[in-house]
Target: Metal-dependent hydrolase
Amino acid sequence: MNIESYKIQLGQLPVLVRRRPIKNLHLAILPPDGLIRVSAPVHMSDEAIRMLLAMRIPWINKQRAKFQGQTRQAPRKYVSGESHYFWGQRYILEVVNDNKPMSVSLKGKKKIILQVPAKSTIKKRDEVMSEWYREELRQEADKLIKKWEPKIGVTVRQFGIKKMKTRWGTCNHKAGRVWLNLELAKKPVDFTEYVVVHELLHLIEKNHSERFVKLLSNYLPKWRSLKAELNRFILSHEEWRNI
Model:
């Protein structure tokens, strides 16, 4: 699919516009600096886009302020001594250089051991770490989904883990498919449970309707504090907007 992209101005703010074969305008505020991005129907005029965005200025400013007030970690270099997080706990990375199969493991409660060849690139080290995080999150998510499916009365036909720039989780309610953000493996497990419950509820209630909020409050009475705290965690260099 060819997607036309260009920028327009909303007052002093640049807006990235993507033209897509859709019916409605979709708005997102992107990290790290609060870039405004809209996906707009092919035939919607730029002036119509500006008018719709102008109506959302208070919300736009609020979301951009969140990003501008958050602390971000520097990009990872994957060298010994770096701090990395796993299930909300801080670990110190220890890189072991040898010719054994590349792997990641925990050493006690304070160290993550990354075993890679001495000449391995930052990209390769990132890939090895990401796959370890992915598998750990997959195992935990599998347990949580099995826990909540019978409680909510839904069936997840498929779930996966991937890097996402704008969501902690997403789902396709028709296909019964759920995706979780890889970054969740770095946060306390309570937040993974919150995102799992959130997405499973979308399998029966597509939108954030009054019914959806009521159901979420019934299953997770403290979901609002979980959501707020999740968005306060230290951001990585490619962190995501909260759901």
Summary: Residues 234-243 have pLDDT under 50 and may be disordered. The chain has six helices and eleven strands.
